[in-house]
Amino acid sequence: MSAPARVALVTGAGRNIGRAIALALAGDGLAVVVNARANRDEAESVVQEIVAAGGDALACLADVTDRAAVDAMMEAVRARYGRLDILVNNAALRQESAFGDTDYAAWRAALAVCLDGAFHCTQAALPLLRQSGQASVINIGGMTAHTAASHRVHVVTAKAGLVGMTRALATELSPQGITVNCVAPGLIATQREASVGAPKHHSVHQTLVGRRGLPQEVAEAVRWLAGPGTRYVTGQVLHLNGGAYFGG
Fold first, then answer.
1. CB proximity list for 49: less than 8 A, separation 6 or greater
2. pTM confidence score
């Protein structure tokens, strides 16, 4: 197999939005590293779907809160492809609990996966991203980081921190040819919703388009930001919520 023109790594890509992003980027001809924390079957299923469509993909199990595991994943990327052009920091926890019932372990877990994970993955990927000449880091935030929501203080805080990280990294990494942006989905229908019910804030916010979004629609925004036509876009938050929140 010839070397791919571009390579993407998507964290938390075994299901839902991460899976849709991996498939969309593969559809554009990128080789895709499919990360999952521990579920190899889910990661391999995404890889098999990409390969069956004629693409190139690699499954990598790594807990993004574990720097040694992240470093090992980046070494696997280097060994397989020798490059990395797109990093999508999608891994996150989305549990709900009243603030008074949220213990410190749950607070730390949300921050660790969303913020520490983005820190570890971006820093570990930096040597490869610098070599690309057309690299992009795309963080997956959330609407509630801007609207707030009850029973999600830990998640809202983590996602809001990701916005600050996006802007700071865009400022620092732009001289190195690396763009950094954040996609903030809201009111997206996922497998999690089907199994445990819609998040509480879904009953508070309403879309203008009369429906919830699809993971594939979030993936299309990531695909756009990862493309060659958006090199002038950096440090931005792209809101995808059907008009439930206008941004600003």
1. 23
2. 0.95
